[in-house]
Amino acid sequence: MSLKLFRRSLWVYHLNSGSCNGCDIEVLNIFTPYHDVERLGIKLVASPRHADVIVFTGPITRETLPKAIRAFFAVPEPKAVVAVGSCACGGGIWYDSYAVIGGIEAFYRILENYYKIRLPLTVYVPGCPPKPEAIIYGIAVLRGVLKQKQRKTYFLEKEVPALTRDFIVNLEKYMKQEGGINIGKK
Amino acid sequence: MKTPRIDIFKEALKTGVVTKKYPFEPVEAPEGFRGKPSIDFEKCIGCEACVNICPPNALSVEIDTKRGIKRVMLFLGRCIFCGRCQDVCPTEAIKLSREFELSSLNSKDLYQIVELKMAKCKICGRYYATVRQILFTAKNVPKDQRPLLLLCDECRSKVSAKHISYARW
Ligand code: SF4
Ligand code: SF4
Ligand code: SF4
User: Fold this and answer.
1) What does the angle CA B138 – CA B144 – CA B145 come to, to the nearest 5 degrees?
2) Does residue A67 form part of some domain?
3) What is the DSSP letter of B76?
4) Measured between beta carbons, which residues in chain A are less than 8 angstroms from residue B41?
5) From ligand 1's centre to the CA of A64, what distance in Å?
6) How many domains does chain A have?
7) What is the ipTM of this complex?
8) pLDDT tens digits for range B3-29
9) What is the rounded CA–CA span in Å between residue A53 and residue A30?
């Protein structure tokens, strides 16, 4: 699912929703001459009404929630969201604090419950703070320029040796015999 | 004094282009960069040391008492890349790499899940620890005391109390 909605430049509105400023500095960093995303047509705008993409940083504190909702609805459709930093992705280090909502997913749950909207395309950029390249990569994934590398990994242990008295006492002998039992090999 | 514009152009040409071509050209993270942590399935013994130390609880553990399975979960979307899990892991199963390209369009892709089988206590039949963890511990325990590892904490303390009282009388 790549973004075919935006053919040309992406205009970005940066919303600090209670971030510690680490992520904001990295977002500003991608506009410096070293990374210079304006060469890709990405431009920072001052008003959400001019934007295509809204960049969230921070875990969305209670204080910023009403403002974040207003800014979110001010961005015209079709829109996309970039959640920059661990705070915006899943609450980060503050995830269980009383003062925060807990990231973009909790924010979406609120939007779904109270406003019954379809959720926009979202790209999650983990990192605390993410490298400027990581943010550029996130936007490239959003545009469908680069492929997403990260996949869910799942492992289920299939076979385990039967734990008997004899087995555990003569463990060394059995280990030498089979060489296949797994006890956290170094 | 005003600098003529042509001089500014000359200066700029002398400096050359500093902009990186990043999305079209790969970039290596510097040495010692703390990037994506990943759990090596073959090495993890399910000891929960990393779960205890993780500051934002990006690592969590669930015990399925019906199936007898311990599930260690790593959610990268909450990880702050501090590297403490790497320091405490006894088998060096979890390690931080230099990989930073973790962006994904679905938050489910940020999970890493390891499910390990647990052993039943030989007396009360309760699931109490993963098989791998018992075997890992057994290597450092004298042979005559190893059978005690096959019991859960409660039964083990009862049995060892019994042993001590027999020894005394
Ligand atoms: S992810 Fe880290 S750097 Fe970014 S706002 Fe949260 S605490 Fe700060
Ligand atoms: S690097 Fe830190 S935050 Fe991330 S999983 Fe390890 S201990 Fe938890
Ligand atoms: S500390 Fe290492 S061995 Fe223990 S549960 Fe975590 S990853 Fe697995």
Assistant:
1) 55
2) yes
3) T
4) 155
5) 16
6) 1
7) 0.84
8) 778 888 888 888 888 888 888 888 888
9) 15
